[in-house]
Amino acid sequence: MAGIEVTTLHKRYPDGTVAVEQVDLSIGDGELFVMLGPSGCGKTTTLRAIAGLERQTSGDIRIGDTLVNDLPPAERDIAMVFQFYALYPHLRTRDNLAFPLRAEGLPKAEVQERVDEAARLMRLGPLLDRRPHRLSGGEQQRVALARALVRRPRAFLMDEPLTNLDAELRADMRTEIKHLQGELGTTMVYVTHDQVEAMSLGHRIAILNKGRVEQIGTPLEVYDRPASLFCAAFIGSPPMNLIEVEVADGKLRSQGGLVLTPPPGLPRDRRLVAGVRPEALEVTEPGAEGSVPARVVSAEWLGDEIIYVVDHGGQRDVRVRMAPTVRFAADAPVGLRHTGGPPPVYDVDTEELVA
Amino acid sequence: MAVSVNEAVSTGPGRDHTPSTRRRGGRGRSVLEVALLTVLAVVMLFPVLWMIETSIKENRDVYAIPAKFFDFKVTLDHFKDVFAASGGGRSALSVSFLNSVVVAGVSTALATVLGVPAAWAYSRFSVKAKKDQLFFILSTRFMPPVVVVIPIFLMYRQLGLIDNKLGLILIYTAFNVPFTIWMMKGFVDEVPAEYEDAAMLDGYTRLQAFWKFTLPLLLPGIAATAVFALIFSWNEFVFAIFLTSSDSVRTAPPAIAGLIGGTTVDWGLVAAASVVFALPVLVFAYLVRKHLVAGVTLGAVRR
Question: Which of A11, A44, A82 best probes binding to B when mutated, by most B CB atoms within 10 angstroms?
Answer without folding.
Answer: A82
